C-alpha cells in the first residue's frame, strides 16, 4: 500500500516592499493591542496630516481704555462676532487664521475700567465687567485668571477643548504711579504654561501727557526689570535673573592682582549721545526679563504721542497720510533708537489714531442699533481678513477734526467721530498698542570644515583634477522634495482699531485688537496608552525523565 505524500514546491517570490503609511502602522498597532478603532468623544481628534498646516495657537488680544465707566453697550465690535456654531462640539483643535471665534486664548486688557482712577484706588473691584465678559463669551470659554490694579484689569480665557493643556497660571501687578507706590499707573500681568511653552501677557497704563517721554520709558523699564511673577512650575523670577556682566568679570578676576579696566564713558557730551547710550543700556536690561518666557505680549494705553502740532496731524489724517505721521510717533522713534521696547515687534499700523475723541458728555451721538455686524476698522490693512469701511473726510464747512464713519450695514446711516474739541485740544495719537517678543531659539552649532594644512599649487591641482579616475560623476536629477524651512516666529493675522458706530461716545479711546499665531506642536501631550499591557512570553521549563 503506497502512501501519497505532497512534496513542497518552490517558494513564491517575496512581495515587493511597499511604502508603509501611517494608517497601516496605526491599524497594525490597534490589531496587536486588541483595541477597536473607535474615536473617543472626550477630546477632539488630531489628524497628523494637518500638523504642518495649523501648528499655531490662535490668540486674541484686545486693549481698551474705557474712560472710567461701564455703559450698556454691545461688546460684539470689541470681542468680534461670536457665531452660535462656537458652542458646538469641535472636531479638531486646529483653528484657522481668520478673524472670528473660536480662539485658543482670549486676552482682554482694559484701563480705567468700570470706574475712574481715583475711585478705583479705594474700590478696585471689576465684578460687573467680568460678569459681562463671561456672559458674552458663553460656555465655550473657561476663565483662567483675572488680575486687577486700581483701574487696570486683565482677564484671560481659554477655549474649553484646550483647557487640559494649560497649567501653572499666575498673576502679578506692579505700580509705577506716584513714587512707585500708587497704582494710578502701572501694569498687571498673567503668566501661563501651555504644553512646554511659557507665555506672559502684560497690560500696562503708562505716564500721560505729551512731554513725559522719559517718564514713560522709565515706567517700561521698571515693568520689565522689576516685575516678579511665576514662570511655569518654577519659583518667582525677576527681570534680572543673573548678575550683570561687570559683576561676573570681577568675580572671575577676584584672585588676580590686576583687574580689567572699566569700559570708557561716552566722550561726547551731547544730549543725543547720552540718550542713545542710556537707551541701549535699557534695552539690554529689558532682554533679561524676556529671556524667562518663550513669548511675551505687552499692550495697553502706552500714552506715547505724536510729536507734531494738532493742525499738522489733522491735515495728514484728512489726506490719509499715515506714513508721515508714523515718522513722528514717539513709540516708533524709541524702538528705532534702542529704547526699552526696541526688542519688541509690532505689526505695521494702517489705522487712524485711537486717541483722543469726544465722548457722549461732549457730543450727541445716535442711539446704537441692535443689528449685528462685523467690527469695522479705519483704513484697509493687507493683513485684514474682514471687510472694513474707512472713515471719510468731512464735507465742506465741517471741522477738520471730524470724520464721517459709514455704517457697515446701512450706508445711509453715517455717524461722525470727532477728535478732542475740549479746551485741552489733545493731539491725536496712537496711544493704544500691542507689541510682542519671541525668545530667540538657540541655533545649532555647525561643524567646522577641516581645511588641509598645505594647499597645492595651481599646476599640481590642475594635474590632479584632470585625471579621469578622480573626476566626480554627475549626479542624476532627483525628484525628492527638499524639507521646507518652517517659520516658528509669532505671526500677526490681524491688527486694527475697532472704530464702530456702536462704540462712538462710550470712551475717548477706541479699542485695538490683534490676532496672533504662536507656534505650537504639542497637541498630544502623551502618546495613547494601550488598553492592555503587553504579555510577556514564558517558555516551558525543561521536563526531566
UniProtKB/TrEMBL annotation:
Q: Where is this region: Disordered?
A: 363-392
Superkingdom is Eukaryota
Indicate, by first and last residue, each region the UniProt record lists as having compositional bias (Low complexity): 363-385
Q: Which InterPro entries match?
A: Endo/exonu/phosph_ase_sf, IP5, IPPc
Q: Name its species.
A: Hesseltinella vesiculosa
Question: What's this protein's name?
Answer: DNase I-like protein
Q: Where is the Inositol polyphosphate-related phosphatase domain?
A: 55-524
Name the GO terms of the biological process aspect: phosphatidylinositol dephosphorylation
Any one Pfam family match given in the protein's UniProt record, by short name: Exo_endo_phos2
Q: Cite the GO molecular-function annotations of the record.
A: phosphatidylinositol-4,5-bisphosphate 5-phosphatase activity
